[in-house]
Structure formats: structure tokens, C-alpha cells
Amino acid sequence: MVETGSPLQRSSSGVGRSVAGLMTIAVVGASVLAWTWSGDPASDTLRYELAKTSMQVIAVAAFGGLASIATFAFQDRRAQAAKDRERRAVETQRDVDRLRDERTRLDDLLRSTLQATLTSYHQVKRARRLLVADTRKADGAHVTIDVYDKHMACILDQQLEFEQFKKLAFLIDELPRRPSGDQTATPAERATLRRSYKRIEKYLNKVIKEYKEKRHLVAGGSGVPLEELTTLSAFLGSAFKPAVADRMDDIIKVLQTALLQPLDLSQLTETDTAAAPRPRTPT
Q1: 166 vs 72: CA distance, rounded Å
Q2: Closest by alpha carbon to 99, among 256, 264, 272?
Q3: pLDDT tens digits for range 40-64
Q4: Per-residue pLDDT for 4 more than 70?
Q5: Among 150, 166, 230, 255, which residue's beta carbon has the most beta carbons within 10 A?
Q6: Which contiguous run of DSSP H or E holds residue 224?
Q7: pLDDT on residue 12
Q8: Dihedrals φ, ψ of 282, to 5°?
Q9: 123 vs 138 pLDDT, higher one
């Protein structure tokens, strides 16, 4: 008949039959010993030798039973240890998959934020360069209402984009902490990210504010000299680098650093980490 069940169950059944058989032999030996010893046999007689043999059989059966039980206990511990290793391996793989999924979603957010930020920045640079070209006259820089309206509309759109990025910086900061206590970036880098978005948005808003306050002056005639629009003039001049360009460098550095961080497996134990797949650098 074909045996069914796990190896441990079959081993347990076999040990049980072995112990039962040895106990039967021990009982038979004890019965024989009781019978032979009851007659107070003299030495060198058949009953005396039979009693000695019965005691030997009982001893062998007892030691055999103990050996069988010890063997089964050892095999049971090994089987349980193998089950525990398999369970830990499954749990570790599940944890690694979860961390990878969280990292993928985080990378998608960081990557899309970086791409959108660069797009808005390039739009601002484009509007700035076109303003420089369109206001340049032979007798000095001059701003007409058509030029002012056209390019300030673009800057206004991008100011609203950076306002959204400023809020998104807080969202990135509120992402769940990694098990090690680290987040996407260090506290200083996160502060730099929020501060940089805020400074760019605030500076563009300053340019827009002047547009709202002085547009009627530009629309009142053939335009005004650029120097009368002091904020716009500074925007087209040297103020752009510290207020916008340098802050963009800070933003790019923080987001790129976050994207290049390896997968964090610090919450796993040393045993689990050894069983876990080697993390890959995000692409």
C-alpha cells in the first residue's frame, strides 16, 4: 500500500510503531522475568539464565525506545526549522515586494515632479529671453502693451505651476517614513526643496504684481521704458540667477539625489536581508 502524508507524519507513524513494538517486547520480557524470578532460581540453571536474558531484553527495549523518541525529536526539530526558514523566506520576499512597490510609486512621483519643474522653468526662461529680444530698441529697452501682455501671460501660468510645486514639496515631505527613520532626503534637503520652490514662486509673483499695478501705464500710450518697470527690469537682468536659476539647481540636486538612492531594506533582520534579493538602483 502506498504511504500518504508528509515525511514528518510518516516518520511519526514509523516511530510510533517502533516504540509500540519495543514496548510489547519489554512487556513480554518483564512477564518472563516475573515468572522465572518467582521461583527463586539457583544460579547456573535454565530459569536463572532465562531471567538474565529477560532483563537484557528489557534493557535493550528501553534503550531502543528512548533512541527512537530522540531520533524523532531531532527530525521534528529539523523539519520545523525548515518550515520556519521557508516561512521567513516567503515573508521576506513579500516585504521586499512591498518596499519595491512603495519605492516605484515614490520614484514616479519624484520623476514626474522633476520633469514638470524643468518644463515650467524652461517656459520661464523662454519668456524671459523673448522679453529681452522684444523690448530691445535702438534707443534703449522699451516695453509695449502687446509684448507685456503676451509674455506676462506665460509667466503668470508658470507662477501658478510653481505655486503647485510648493504645495507638492510638502506632500513629498509627508510621505511615510522608511523603517530606518530616513525619508526621501535629509531634513536640510527637504527644507531646501520647499524653500527653493517658495522663493521661485514668490519672485515670479512679484513680477506679476508689478504687471497688475503698472499695466495701465504701459497701455496708456506707445509703451514705457523698461527702466520704469523696475521688477521686470531686474527679472531680465542679474536678479534672475539668484532668485530663480540658483534655486532650480537646488531643486534638481535634491530630486536627483532622491531618485538615485538604492532600495532601503534596513527594516529587515540580518537573516531576512541575507535571504532577500539584491536591491537594484532605480532607473
Answers
A1: 66
A2: 264
A3: 666 666 666 666 676 677 667 676 6
A4: no
A5: 255
A6: strand 224-225
A7: 57
A8: -60, 145
A9: 123
In DSSP notation, 83-134 reads HHHHHHHHHHHHHHHHHHHHHHHHHHHHHHHHHHHHHHHHHHHHHHHHHHHH
Nearest to 168 by CA among 188, 197, 192, 189: 197
20 grid coordinates:
509500540
Q: Tell me the C-alpha distance between 45 and 22, whole Å.
A: 27
Q: Which cell numbers hold the place of 73?
A: 525529536
Angstrom distance (rounded) from CA 120 to CA 101: 29
- For residue 243, give the DSSP letter: I
Burial of 86 (0-12, 13-18, 19+ CB in 10 A): exposed
Q: Which residues pair with 142 in a beta bridge?
A: 225
Does the pLDDT at position 5 exceed 60? no
SS3 state of residue 178 = coil
The single-letter code of the amino acid at 224 is V
Helix residue spans in the chain (DSSP H): 7-38, 46-135, 145-173, 187-219, 230-236, 240, 246-259, 270-275
241 residue type, one letter: K
Mean per-residue pLDDT over the chain, rounded = 77
Higher pLDDT among residues 204 and 87, named by residue:
204
Cβ contact 263:100 at 8 Å: yes
